[in-house]
Amino acid sequence: MSEPFLIKHMSSGKFFHPRGGSENPCDGTEIILCSPIHTHMHWKFVRVEGQWGYIQHAESGKIINPKGGSLCSGNETELVVNNDRQQGALFSLDACNHHLVHKGGKFAHPQGGSPCAGEETKVVLHSDVHAGMKFAFVSPCNANQEVKVV
Length: 150
Ligand code: GLA
What we know:
By secondary structure, the protein is mainly β. Strand 4 and strand 5 form a beta hairpin. About 0% of the residues lie in helices and about 40% in strands.
C-alpha cells in the first residue's frame, strides 16, 4: 500500500473528497471536488494487478468504485466509496498523462468537464480526453508537489 496522497484536479486546484468530509463516510458517499486539505481526504493506492489497484480512503479503508460497481460503467457514472473490492473498482494512476483511469477504459472527470470546476462538483467517469480532466497525485504536506505513488 502506498503512502497517503491527495488527488488534485489540476486546472481548478480542488481535491477528491468524500462528500461531507467524514473520516468514515457511509457506503455510497460521492466523490466531489473541494478546496480544503485535511486528513479525511487522504488516499492510498493498493496495487492489485500490474498498474491496476484500489484507491483507498486512508482513514476508513473504503475504496473508490463507480456507482453500481460495473467494469463497463458508462459515461457520467458517479464515483462513490464503499467496501466492494471487485474488478469494477480497479483504477490506475497515470502520472505521465495526469489521467485517473478506470479499468473499464474511461477516465475520472469533473461532472460537466469544466477546467474551473466549482466547489462540490461531482467526479464521474467519461471517455473523453481534454485539458479539464487532468489530475495530479500530490503530497499531503505540499499540494504543489507531485508524488510517485508506488
Ligand atoms: C461534458 C464534457 C465531456 C466530459 C463530461 C463529464 O459533457 O463535454 O467531455 O468532460 O462533461 O461530465
